[in-house]
Design goal:
Blueprint: E1 11-13, H1 15-19, H2 23-34, E2 38-40, H3 43-55, E3 64-70, E4 75-81, E5 84-91, H4 95-99, H5 108-127, E6 136-140, H6 142-153, E7 162-164, H7 165-176, H8 180-187, H9 191-210, E8 215-217, H10 223-237
Parallel strand pairs: 1-2, 3-6
Antiparallel strand pairs: 3-4, 4-5, 7-8
Helix pairs in contact: 3-10, 5-9, 6-9, 7-9, 8-9
Length: 238
């Protein structure tokens, strides 16, 4: 930042620090060591920033879109109607959180049983009073990008940024047949990615099934992009 003469730095924390008992201590230590103050944001604000980021990368106009970001602690879900944010939900379906609930080498159903009921409630909350189907599913987060890359590398999909539910179903079968070490070696995944990619795959596959969506688009954007655009707008209009 110093070499590039950056004069403004924004740092935010999400689910992990929202739920940590020692979050204040962590934030104070970060500021003491780096000079950067970290702001803890709630799930709704996180989802709004993601909506802003995706809106600058994907045409959401004239569409009913479901936006999903899977992190370590939570799933942020946004319903977007014609490019405008309609509803937001934060669900405790993060990858690390889900792994903490299951046995060491879980099978698909071990994870899916924690996921289905919250996702059915989400569908009811988002669509019960609206009879329009979802036109577009957009996913963000490192795990979804990793799933897209694997679908592409294995020849299941033509693009790493777009894959079908059928592609993910095939990939999920392969992933759950392997041990952690085998996933790391076969797919060249780091240990922390080879671990959490299982619950990420379960969450997004169940989401697609429950909302009856056949395809997902995974642009290379995330929370940082939303922060950038928000900062740019403040500088422009402030």
């Amino acid at each position: 930042c110093e070499s590039l003469h950056v004069d403004q730095i924004r740092a935010v924390a999400t689910s992990a620090l929202r739920d940590s008992r020692n979050s204040r201590r962590v934030i104070d230590q970060l500021q003491a060591r780096t000079g950067i103050r970290v702001n803890v944001i709630d799930g709704h604000r996180e989802a709004r920033l993601l909506h802003k980021a995706i809106g600058h990368a994907v045409d959401l106009k004239h569409k009913t879109a479901l936006l999903a970001d899977i992190g370590g602690g939570s799933l942020e879900a946004v319903l977007s109607l014609n490019g405008k944010l309609e509803a937001v939900e934060t669900l405790p379906l993060g990858t690390v959180r889900l792994l903490s609930k299951v046995k060491k080498n879980p099978d698909y159903e071990d994870i899916a049983r924690w996921v289905r009921t919250p996702l059915y409630r989400l569908r009811f909350d988002f669509l019960a009073r609206r009879h329009k189907p979802i036109d577009l599913l957009v996913g963000t987060g490192g795990n979804l990008r990793a799933l897209g890359k694997l679908c592409s590398r294995l020849g299941l999909s033509r693009s790493k940024n777009r894959f079908h539910r059928a592609h993910l179903e095939v990939l999920v079968l392969r992933l759950f047949r392997m041990t952690l070490a085998q996933r790391m070696k076969r797919f060249q995944l780091k240990k922390d990615r080879a671990d959490v990619i299982l619950p990420a795959a379960v969450v997004i596959l169940e989401l697609m099934r429950i909302f009856e969506i056949s395809e997902i688009f995974v642009p290379n954007v995330g929370l940082k992009n939303g922060l950038f655009w928000e900062s740019a707008e403040k500088l422009k209009f402030g």
